[in-house]
Design goal:
Number of strands: 7
Strand order of the largest sheet: 3-2-1-4-5-6-7
Helix content: 40-55%
Order of helices and strands: EHEHEHEHEHEHHHE
CATH architecture of the largest domain: 3-Layer(aba) Sandwich
Strand content: 5-15%
Structural class: alpha/beta
Largest sheet: 7 strands, parallel
CATH superfamily of the largest domain: NAD(P)-binding Rossmann-like Domain
Radius of gyration: 18 Å
Number of helices: 8
Number of domains: 2
Shape: globular
CATH topology of the largest domain: Rossmann fold
Length: 277
Amino acid sequence: MGEPKPRLKDQVAIVTGGGGGLGAGICRCLAEEGAHVVVSDVNLDLAEKVAAELRERGQEVLAIRTDVRSPEQCQTLVETTIREMGRIDILVCGAGVGGFDFRGDSPEPPMLETISEEDWDLIIDVNLKGVFLCNRAVAPHFKQQRHGKIINISSICGRKGVAWLAHSSASKAGVIVLTQSVALQLAPYNVNVNTVCPGLIWTPMWAKGAEVLSQTYESYKGMSPEEIFRTEVQQQIPLGRPQTPEAIGKLVVFLASSEAEEITGQAINVDGGAMFN
């Protein structure tokens, strides 16, 4: 038997947040299955770095700077992709910010009394509004061609509220329900819309959170961010290991493939058993 046929051969996939650790892992998995990837990120340097890596695989790749808070930039992302690539088959909305971002030098976790309106608005705008704007921008194209796959990235903190991440939990829970609504709207056009909920992945976002936790909880004082992360993994993940960007990317590939043509409106956890449906 020969090599298995790539599941996404010559399909065109947009990945927002594609320059980050999780987004880059998703981009790699899509490219490995034959997709031509548009790496979209607010940080163009990071997007270009990932794009350069993927081009070495022989894939056609674009890097586009996109601030997903901007409806104009989301629309430009879609229009540029169609103009340069000829089509769009897959949209992965992975752009996001964490609850510990933009906290300055505050040693306190972002509790209800300490979350500023500015931080609340920023997280809702990127994590939830950004998904809405990108879904909205691609919907007419998918409806016209009568097929497409949308995969929105949420989180297990959208499954169950976290005491010190009210704004993040609210934004990620919103993504899950938004996905259900979009799935219902686009189902008559043969478009599948699903959500992936990652568990604990070591990223710069998590490292910043661990630093805050080390200053807040006595049990974590004196521990490095990596030690705190490993402790959280052991406490929260029944399988006892962290998740990886590639683990998320593999599910994204499945949902983007013809193998998942009967799956829509679902939120699927990739979390080592941290949450059960």
